Amino acid sequence: MDSTKIVGEKIKSLRETKEISIAELAVRSGLAEEQIERIENNVDLPSLAPLIKIARALGVRLGTFLDDQEEQGAVICRKQESEDTISFSNNAMDLRTHMRYHSLSKSKADKHMEPFIVDVEPTEETHFSLSSHEGEEFIYVMEGTIEVCHGKKCHLIEVGDSIYYDSIVPHHVHGYQGQAAKILAVIYTPI
């Protein structure tokens, strides 16, 4: 199942339930009204940064957009369950995708971390826009090599290597020289 279309619908439903207009959500999140409309209507695939801003503006966790049901106790994610994916673009106003996220905890309630297995797709793109959001990220490389640009530095992270950084610093993650990779990513965003 591709969960991409669910995200826009959940954002719209949460916004309407909380009786927040698109204009008010735009002000709270710092995003353009048009961008929010395009995300809610599944026209654009959002990147993580705007999704995190929307989640904070709505007072919910990032994972709320992916959750099907919430479990209070321990949550186990079996291999076949992690095959459900969601795609994010590498630029919020752009339809190009370069990462497919497999949530490892989508039914866990009251969590503070969002763990994903991420398939980093090959790309011919060579210019990436850095983005930032509150919180922290931990990445462990399972296959291939990734390049993480964080602030003014770019780091090559190979199989078995990991990186942990503050995500408020502008950053971007992509496969080194456009190659495919697979990573374990854990994202923490305060509510």
Structure description:
The chain contains 4 helices and 9 strands. β5 (146-150) and β6 form a beta hairpin. With 191 residues, the protein is an alpha+beta fold. It has a 6-stranded antiparallel β-sheet, with no helix packed on it. A 3-stranded antiparallel β-sheet has the order 6-5-8, with no helix packed on it. The protein has 2 domains: 3-66, 434 Repressor (Amino-terminal Domain) (Orthogonal Bundle), CATH 1.10.260; 79-188, Jelly Rolls. α2 (22-29) packs across α4 (48-58). The protein starts with a helix and ends with a strand. Helices cover 21% and strands 29% of the residues.
Number of strands: 9
CATH-defined architecture of the largest domain:
Sandwich
Radius of gyration computed on alpha carbons: 16 Å
The major sheet is characterized as: 6 strands, antiparallel
CATH uppermost class of the largest domain: Mainly Beta
Strand order of the largest sheet: 1-2-3-9-4-7
Q: Approximately what portion of the residues adopt beta-strand conformation? A: 25-35%
Average per-residue pLDDT, rounded, comes to 80
**Alpha carbon gap, first and last residue:** 28 Å
CATH superfamily of the largest domain: Jelly Rolls
Shape: globular
Summarize the amount of helix as a percent range: 10-25%
Based on secondary structure, the structural category is alpha+beta
- Tell me the count of domains: 2
Low-pLDDT runs of 5+ residues are 89-96
How many helices in DSSP terms?
4
CATH topology (fold) name of the largest domain: Jelly Rolls
Task: Please write the string of helix (H) and strand (E) elements.
Answer: HHHHEEEEEEEEE
